[in-house]
Amino acid sequence: MGDPYKDKMFKSNPYAKKKPLKGNLVVVLDGKYENRGLNLIQQPSRCLAANDVHEMILTDEDKKPGEVVNKIAYIGFFAVKESAVIVAGDEVKINGEIIGKIAGFDETHMPNHYNIVIYGKDRISGNERNLNLDDEVIIG
């Protein structure tokens, strides 16, 4: 049996109901790159376990799973409060402010953490956004 995403078996969204992910920033990042070369995996979803820490990276390139992202701004790392599933297209909020939607996931640093790549209009880093440690992250 192959991968249902790679084999394009899903004809509609299989996620009938799911809880939003909640977490808090544990690191605020600064920095931007024009040629980062993040390879978004083909799969549009990832399961994130409670207490895991993952990185958020923002791009203003409208990309989807399976594509490469170059223009990025680093947002930060967050700790997951309760296990959840997140999917490309899910809205990402920090302190109630929408920063974008999940474009996909890069596994460069696995098994340490996922790079969660977010598509948004303003490629502004976490530090430039004046984010703080413990700021609330909600994805869903």
Automatic annotation (TrEMBL):
It comes from the Bacteria. InterPro entries: DUF6917. Residues 15-139 form the DUF6917 domain. This is DUF6917 domain-containing protein. The lineage of its organism: Bacteria, Bacillati, Bacillota, Clostridia, Thermosediminibacterales.
